[in-house]
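Quick illustration, no need to memorize.
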Amino acid sequence: MPYLSWPEGSQLMWHAVHTACQIGRDPLACAVARPSEARLSRAHAAIDRIGAIWWVRDLESANGTFLNGVPLLGHQGNALQDGDVLEMGDWRLTFTEGFPGLDGTTFAERVGDLFHEVRPEPAQAMVLIRGIELMQRSTEKLLAQVDPDAMVKGLLDESLRLLNSDRGFLVLKQKDGSWRTVHRVGNVQEGIGLSRSVLDYVAVELTAVLSNRPLADPRFGGLSLVELHRGSLLCTPIVDEGEIHGALYLDREAEGRPFSRFDLAILQAFVRLGSMALRQAMLNRRALSQAEQQGELLRLRTESQREADRHGELLAAMATHLRRVSSWAEQLPDATGEAIRSQLDHSLALLEHGSRDESADTTPVAGHPLPMASLQEDLVRRWDSLLRLRKARFEIAEAPAASVWLAGGPLVVALAGLVEPMLMQLTDGAIATGRWDQERGFRVLRMSLPSGLHGPIPDAWTQRVLQDAGVRWRWSDQALDLLLPEGPDAMPEEPARPLLGLVSEELNLLGLFQTVAEAGNLWLNPLEQEPPPPPLPKFRFLVIDAKGTRDLEGCIRAYRHHPSFATTPILVVRCNEDETPKLIEAGATDWLAEGFRWEALHHRLQVLRGHTELQQRALAAERLDSFRQMAGTLKHEINNPLAIISMQVEMLQRKYPEEVKLGKIGEMVDRIRALVQVLQKMRETPTEGYADGSSILKLG
């Protein structure tokens, strides 16, 4: 952090330049002001930052501004460097990159590397060699550690030994800005720790510091420093990718054992090496964790395959027993025996289909046309034994000379599973009728059933097979319509697996998210920080990596404003908890901090899916309620004028009975009244759901 400093008598004054500021005579308008300086203008000069460079420019002052004795360049100004002197009237200010007034021996910071801190003298060569030797030994001991936790402790222990210090602390910076001590060595009794003011200064300035007289050091202060009574101290930040994660603090109790700039350079270099080694250890731990996850996934897949093999063996054994029972049922007489044999054949077909599904290398059977007469004959034959058992009849006209498209699967078994539970409800002497019809792309088998039967409730397997075969069905007014596709063009498109979008620049995350996508039956689709132009396929989830995205909030807003992602849940991973309010405001749905496992990510995505479905249902219910309220309002508004019109028409008919047009008006009034009754039913009638997830208002 840069500073502006100037002498006030025997005391050095300074101002930390955090942001752009003005210099002048007015203390209200200028952050750096000197009201007693008559030659200063009210706002004399301004300091601002452009990129990584600080600039100074004159604000059209009366007496001008000088940089190192030279006037500033017009409105553009000049760049500032460490040690530059600004002259404004009789006021001289010094611009420094670090804290001003440090002597470099008793108080020091911002030291260079080992070679810069050694003076060009023959005696200093041995000092450099000895320092490099000690640091090499300590580095070898540090790198011998594999576990990151042991490496953290080793970093402090070796630093203490390297610089012959009395005490040492290794602290980490928390999300809330506080410090947490993870390892300490030396005399720490009676609760005496390290100075928080030293740590805060190191965190703000991002520089290693040396102080051989801590109580007189102008950079620090506070009661914690007074309580220490230490002779000298060193403190260096632990920085990774430009961000501070912690600090290493060393001190000596005796005042006669000062640290040197070379000591600070050695500590700074050693901590930098330790930070890189620690980061490498963390990456290794993460790689091992991912390897463990991949191993666990492989184990689960193997276990699943083993379970599938056992399932197939069980199905084969069940099929053997069913065939044995079916052979015994051949001796059963009349309709009862036929019904039992029909259901056994049904069960054997289901077992055969289940065994075929268990075979991983079995290719699906292609679809083919099936004559409607053949399909009708097969269905009637299957249903005939049940109908005779119930003493009921099914009358159906001859099938047209056409075909329907039979997809590769047990469609006839599924149709039987849909219809047979309803046939079992028929009473003695009941008659069900059927006829064939045609709609666009479909042949329709319309089955009329006696009153009193409830609608079909297919099981999950039957519903899935019918959906895969492109067969639709509807139930209304005691009639069941089976819509069978005429050809492959009427078949529904193969439902694509839902998409999981990932925005990240780190390729090592792809393996983790691929595992999560496979566990959730999703396709992983990497995306760029800028969303692609529409149209896009439907994404079930969008995951944005905070560490692998340059402008996180801008990325979230861009995707949230994209029409294809307007309602898609957006999960932000590897983000700081302090940033979450801004991320939620930008449009994120949820977040995960760094260090999550794939099980936590998979669970969070399932929770988000449940929340989205609940929101969609709530929105549909709200729309239906609004529709019903509108229907009630329309009924009320129409009934009032309709009653007046009806009364006036009736009076006119009594006065002019021969007028034919009045009768027509009365008919139209009755028709409007019937429509109003429909509006009343819309308000009161419940909804009825269908197998495809849609629902209607059943008005009767």
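The CA atoms of residues 289 and 597 lie 9 Å apart.
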